[in-house]
Amino acid sequence: MPHPFPTPDGPLPDWNLGAVVGALRKSREVTHNVRHKGRIRELPSREALSQIVQGLSAALFPTHYGRPDLTDESIDYFVGYTLHDTLTVLAEQVRRGLLFVGDDLDESDPGLAQTLAAKAGETTREFASQLPEIRALLVSDLQAAYQGDPAATSVSEILLSYPGMTAIISYRIAHALYKLGAPLLARLIADIAHGATGIDIHPGAQIGPAFFIDHGTGVVIGETTVIGQRVRLYQAVTLGAKRFPTDENGALLKGHPRHPVLEDDVVIYAGATVLGRITIGKGSTIGGNVWLTNSVPPGSNVTQAQNRGA
């Protein structure tokens, strides 16, 4: 077999691959083993999860993300067929993700595979039952985008070309899976959307209906953020943590509420940074580039100049 990297002149390079491969094996298996529990190799697939989001999007909005030639007679068949295939793939990914949930799995149990498969099927059925509710939330988000952006000419334009809408679709799907006990899958879906849109929404965040992200690039929404109804964010807004609480041993406390609470009808303009477990009161407006670490009452109007003088 020819060398994969032949040189035009002279001998082939000697990379001492035997020694390198052996040292990497020792690092991988012994010295620096980072596999979950030291041995789990069966990981969820980012490619499969991308296909799942595409399939679910097509089932939720078939004429926009599915096929353009659907008719009243064929659309239900298409949705059913798409959901069957997509949920079958999802169940397998949920099964793989369950290997990373909790520390009480007995991998020596001969019935573990059957138990995980049954649990994955139950989780997937419950997720499927929530799809009408997810679609209702997404329609409210669509309407908020159309009403909130004078440049929007139709809901189709928003579905097909707004990165904020793309990110919110992935978030609504990921959040449902997160609540159903599939956090690893939810994080992967969120990261895939982050890579595609530049918008980073943790699936653990709680976001109410009629949510609109305009432009969107650089938006970050942390895990314990709570967002009410009819909230609008612009690009480069950060809803983050001010500090990271630790236990008596100095280890970070996981899941501790550390991100902002935004009440209904809040608007936050481009570049604003809102940190800590603070509350932005109903109907408040936070101006561009504001750095905010304290709660504000309902109806507040916070600008950079006000913050500088405070």
UniProtKB/TrEMBL annotation:
Keyword Amino-acid biosynthesis: yes
Entry's Gene Ontology cellular component terms: cytoplasm
Chain ranges of the Serine acetyltransferase N-terminal domain: 121-168
UniProt-listed SUPFAM superfamilies: Trimeric LpxA-like enzymes
GO molecular function list: serine O-acetyltransferase activity
Keywords, alphabetical: Acyltransferase, Amino-acid biosynthesis, Transferase
Domain of life: Bacteria
Pathway: Amino-acid biosynthesis; L-cysteine biosynthesis; L-cysteine from L-serine: step 1/2
UniProt EC number: 2.3.1.30
Swiss-Prot/TrEMBL catalytic activity: L-serine + acetyl-CoA = O-acetyl-L-serine + CoA
Pfam families membership: Hexapep, SATase_N
InterPro entries linked to this entry: Hexapep (IPR001451), LbH_SAT (IPR045304), Ser_AcTrfase_N (IPR010493), Ser_AcTrfase_N_sf (IPR042122), Serine_acetyltransferase (IPR053376), Trimer_LpxA-like_sf (IPR011004)
Biological processes annotated in GO: cysteine biosynthetic process from serine
CDD domains: LbH_SAT
Family as reported in the entry's similarity comment: Belongs to the transferase hexapeptide repeat family.
Protein name: Serine acetyltransferase
Organism encoding this protein: Aquabacterium soli
